[in-house]
Amino acid sequence: MRRLWRPVLDGLIPYDAGLSLEALARELGRSELVRLSANENPLGPSPLAVAAVKREAARIHLYPDGGSTALREALGRSLGAAPSQIVVGNGADELIALIATAAFEPGDEVIVPVPSFEPYEISARLAGARIVPSPLAGYDTDLDDVLRRVTDRTKAVMLCSPHNPATTIIPRRALLGFLDALGPDSPLVVLDQAYIDFCDDPDHADGIRLLERYPRLVVLRTFSKIAGLAGLRVGYAVASAETIDRFNRVRAPYNVNRLGQVAALAALDDHAHVDKTVRLVLEERAYLSAELTKRGYAFPPSRANFLLVAVSDAADLRARLMREGILVRDGASVGFPGHLRFSVGLRETNEKLLSLL
Ligand SMILES: Cc1ncc(COP(=O)(O)O)c(C=O)c1O
Hints:
Helix content: 25-40%
Largest sheet: 7 strands, mixed
Radius of gyration: 20 Å
Number of domains: 2
Shape: globular
Bound molecules: pyridoxal-5'-phosphate
CATH superfamily of the largest domain: Type I PLP-dependent aspartate aminotransferase-like (Major domain)
Distance between the termini: 55 Å
């Protein structure tokens, strides 16, 4: 018999994003559901991005710019990086896959703090690499443990700060110490900063400022959270021009669609929406944290737009919240059994959530 499929697929469980919001609302017989399970923007998309999408709609018969040139140039200006140091992807998700396609081979080791954002592991395994798990120390990334696991075969280390799902950061000094210890022949260090806009801790490092000193660092960012463009799928990686050149060799020719490109470009200029989003998330995160503490819940201080809270009856609570129209994530599905993970919502939603808890 001809063997059609790669054996590695047998061990992979497809990423389960659950039912669509629309299908779930139908199933529950509710006209309105608030999703706090995907860390989306509670204010909705940048209005400037929506206007840009409307303007561009009549041109969707034309292929997009395969190089996302205007967007990379604008990102370069805003981030203080050269456009040649940036690749735009169909969400940061695509970039995680691109890193694996470009760099990982069977026999390579990829160190992944566990739990972490699931696609790191899935992409690496698909590429045939061996996952070397490094357990979190409680809710924190344990860089001493990660360092002990680095070998000659280590191709990459996947770091996330602020961390999904743990909500914690890697402090600047620990990160710099780790990168210094890896030395000039370091593996790739992927630093996923999808939630950096919600981090108000001065002890957090902006990965892009470290690229000059650590040329094997790859920083991931996204328009999904801060700009509210999750449905358009636009993320980007910033790294050395040599690294970006390797990613460009493996990406699809038109990987970012026309609407995504113009929306992201417009969102970059929408400082009012960014400020409003950050203000809302920080205020409501503080409110939720204070109220949860008053009620006796334990959780790490969040530096992201979501919280990870220890509960005694996660599955029941999640089901009860769902019946009341609020979707949250059962921690068991993201490696934290006995927890709920939920995004910071609007005040009204947060009050309802607290009353149901
Ligand atoms: C840590 C982390 N990285 C990357 C992503 C993916 O972002 P995108 O929507 O740009 O694919 C997410 C999405 O939730 C995330 O939590």
